[in-house]
Structures are given as C-alpha cells and as structure tokens.
Amino acid sequence: xxxxxxxxxxxxxxxxxxxxxxxxxxxxxxxxxxxxxxxxxxxxxxxxxxxxxxxxxxxxxxxxxxxxxxxxxxxxxxxxxxxxxxxxxxxxxxxxxxxxxxxxxxxxxxxxxxxxxxxxxxxxxxxxxxxxxxxxxxxxxxxxxxxxxxxxxxxxxxxxxxxxxxxxxxxxxxxxxxxxxxxxxxxxxxxxxxxxxxxxxxxxxxxxxxxxxxxxxxxxxxxxxxxxxxxxxxxxxxxxxxxxxxxxxxxxxxxxxxxxxxxxxxxxxxxxxxxxxxxxxxxxxxxxxxxxxxxxxxxxxxxxxxxxxxxxxxxxxxxxxxxxxxxxxxxxxxxxxxxxxxxxxxxxxxxxxxxxxxxxxxxxxxxxxxxxxxxxxxxx
Length: 380
Prior knowledge:
The protein is built from ten helices and ten strands. The chain has two domains: 1-59, no CATH class; 61-358, Ureohydrolase domain (Arginase, Chain A). Helix 5 links the parallel strand 6 (175-179) and strand 7. The two termini are 24 Å apart. The protein has 380 residues and is an alpha/beta fold.
C-alpha cells in the first residue's frame, strides 16, 4: 500500500513527478522528503512493476533529482532555454533510468529567455540572470537537504552559480570541477560582449564584483583551491587571462590540449585535487568543451578546440565518480543547432552512459511490453 503524498508544510502544492521507467506519474502535489516514491530501474509502470521507496530497497545508489532550468538570460542569444524540454522529449530521463539510476524529475525551475539589453552593455540582463540563479539555489538546497544528488540541466552557464549557492547553504566547503571550453576568467566589464554566460569563473572567484558574484553567503564564493578548471581554450582573448593563474598558484587548471592528451588521467588529477579541500563536489559540464566539429551543440560554437565527444564522456565519467558528489550541471546545449536530433541523441547517450557508470548504475533491460523507446515521442 503506497503512502499518500502530501504538500510540504507551508507551501503551495505543486506538480509532483515520479519517474517510472521513463513514464511521468502526476501525483498532483510535491511529495515531502521521506514520502517521495521513485520507480527504480526495472520497475515498469503498467507491467506489474511497483513503486519502491528508497528505504524499502537495499540500494546504495543515490537518488538523482532532475531539475530543468529553461533559461538563456545570460547567453549570447536565445535557444538554450529550449534544452530541458527538448532533451526530455528525446528520452533523456528514460536513458538515465535505463543506465541504472534512481531518478526523480521535479520539473523545471523558472527561467528567462534572452532579450537584447542595450541599457547595460557591460552586464547584460543581470537582473534576470540573478533571478534565475536564486531560484536554482533554492531548489538545489532542498534537494541536498533531502539527501539527494541534483542533476541540473540548463540553460546557460550562469546557473552553476545558483547550484553552488544552494549546495553551500548545506555545506560551505563545497567545491567545483569546472569542465568547460572557456576559462570564463574575464569580469563582464572587461569583455567585448558584456555577456554574463562567459564570465562564470570570474564571478566564482571574486574577479567580478556585482550582484551575481554576491549570490552566495560568502564573497568570493570559492577559494582558489576549491575550484579545478579543465578543458578550456587558451586562445580566447575574452575568456582567458593567463595572469590569473600566475597570481593564484592554488588554482588548479588543465587546458584543452592537456586534457586531449589524457582525458581520464587529467580528470583523476582534478578529482584528487578537489577531494582534499571540498566536503561536497559540483561537476559543471559545458557542451562547448566538445569540439564543435564533432558535436555542434554549443550555443557559441567552438571549432578546433576542446575534446571529442568520446573523450568528454570519459572525462565526465571520472569527474562524476568524485567522493561526496553533490550536483552535476549540464549547460549550453542549443537544440536549434540540431534540427533532426541526431547530435542530441549522441549527447544523451554519452552523458547517460557516463553517469550510469559513475554513480553505480547498471544498464537494465526494459520489459517487452513497456513504454516505447521512440525518442521522437513525448513521454506519455
């Protein structure tokens, strides 16, 4: 007999979604912590499978809470805001379940679509970016207090500041593994564009001083030793500033050409470095760390830099095996760059396989009469 689901005390009921082998079950309310029910891999809705709570199943795999952030507020243009909806419709959550993960989809955090901001050329759309990041922080804090791992799908890179702020409310020692095709070291007023999406590390380290860099409860949000950067292009004049590394010797960093030479080995070094200083670990993965010649999904294309998709998967697999992993952030996917969905499917397959391995999942066979695997069909 299933325990009834109840709204959180003092909160307006909102949609509660339970994933059961890729099907969405509308509970009508947001279930409270111990009463949430997950459908573990292999329990198929409508085929005799049963909903099982984590305390009823001997399983040391984490509960993975999936959150979408349909926002392009901090980006160069719109498009990334479409990613959570499109990737869900192509079966991303289904593939995570098939990879052996225990997934709960809590829907989307409120996002903002890019608008032209002529009035603030050095900090474009700052108010909207901060608004979204605060919403992300609130949701991620709740996920961590529920004892789950947050898997956050953006959306532009500024959402990572919100993820960090939320995790830090529970663990102030949290650190970040920043796997990104750009170093993001320039304060927005130093860049040619004023686009906040390209300045994430500057805000994390206090190189920038504005409302976004003060999003958390401390400033700067990270000490140099609590950040490890990997996969960035050293030739980008806006995003890269080698003097920062000279001035900050405790900031560990591995450029894209170093990562290409040994993806898994570099990732292991990054995990070792962060594990010694951070009680909780956040993995940030920007798809522009992948050479656009292989996977042209990045909102801002990066041809001839980064790593190929296979190497990115190997890197992500090691990073997400970090002890005390608290959150994974997936950013910068622009579905409009792939009208037929072929490259989106490659991304979904690679990321799902990497997370399944890293988080202790094992691929499961779907029941013969279970839900369709047609990626062109919306979840039913």
